[in-house]
Specification:
Anti-sigma B factor antagonist, STAS_dom, anti-sigma factor antagonist activity, alpha/beta, STAS_dom_sf, 5 strands
Length: about 90
């Protein structure tokens, strides 16, 4: 099991999320399916960023892989995960 660790950008919105999605999709196409996303720098996430995470989570689940999130330290970012109940999905 080879786990890929990636740091989420400070502002995880439209432009950054699209670029991130491309990077992860390329890795998935190469056979990677275990990811750990580090939120230590993230200060903002919008619906696009959340959508990217959910899509990646679903793809990896279908491939018997996993997505883990950690260091969600910013209270506003954590609030978004709580409000959307994605904290339960990702086990934050």
């Amino acid at each position: 099991m080879n786990e890929i660790n990636m740091v989420i950008p400070e502002n995880f919105a439209v432009d950054e999320a699209d670029e991130f999605r491309e990077q992860i999709n390329n890795l998935i196409n190469k056979g990677e399916k275990f990811f750990t996303f580090d939120f230590k720098n993230c200060k903002f996430i919008d619906s696009t960023g959340l959508g990217v995470l959910v899509t990646i989570y679903k793809k990896c689940n279908e491939l018997n892989g996993s997505v883990k999130l950690y260091s969600v330290n910013d209270p506003q970012v954590m609030k978004i995960f709580n409000l959307t109940r994605l904290d339960k999905v990702f086990g934050i």
